[in-house]
Inverse folding.
């Protein structure tokens, strides 16, 4: 892949590194070995996920449950790592970045549930000019949208 992918673009992949099927240590060790090979072949960044290939899986759904797995892949391969799955609470995301579990936090369903998701979080966290986090055209619209509290445009 690296040979045909433009040098100036990162080569990224998503990889289900375990199944939560009771064989997790074995699967994870094999997966980490493979990730080392991917890295040697030029992979720049990995999104760590779940295999979802067996009905035996008992996934421990909960906030940030993939963070320790991501951390292990990150530490043992030295690759920049992301994960998703229950990372949509800003406190969990911040902790995962600060404690070195991952380099990037990914959020899917949070955006489906609320199209203003990153904007709302930024406002809740007291970040000034929250609309600047959004694509320009969207920020332009949202900055003129009546605020939910007092009818004032949001910022
Ligand atoms: C409607 C929908 C479609 C998805 N499609 C894909 C997909 O095609 N490939 C994939 O790897 N993950 C897919 N996912 C999984 C998301 O990428 C993400 O890993 C998952 O929803 C967990 O993150 P979250 O807890 O922030 O939602 C999909 C999720 C949703 C809700």
């Amino acid at each position: 892949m690296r040979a045909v992918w433009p040098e100036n673009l990162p080569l990224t992949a998503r990889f289900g590194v375990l199944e939560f099927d009771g064989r997790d240590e074995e699967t994870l060790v094999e997966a980490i070995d493979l990730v080392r090979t991917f890295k040697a072949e030029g992979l720049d960044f990995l999104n760590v996920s779940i295999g979802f290939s067996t009905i035996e899986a008992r996934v421990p759904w909960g906030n940030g449950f993939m963070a320790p797995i991501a951390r292990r892949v990150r530490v043992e391969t030295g690759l920049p790592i992301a994960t998703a799955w229950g990372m949509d609470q800003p406190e969990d995301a911040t902790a995962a970045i600060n404690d070195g579990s991952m380099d990037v936090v990914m959020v899917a369903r949070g955006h489906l549930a609320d199209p203003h998701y990153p904007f709302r979080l930024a406002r809740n966290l007291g970040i000034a000019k929250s609309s600047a986090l959004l694509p320009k055209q969207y920020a332009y619209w949202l900055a003129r949208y009546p605020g939910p509290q007092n009818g004032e445009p949001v910022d």
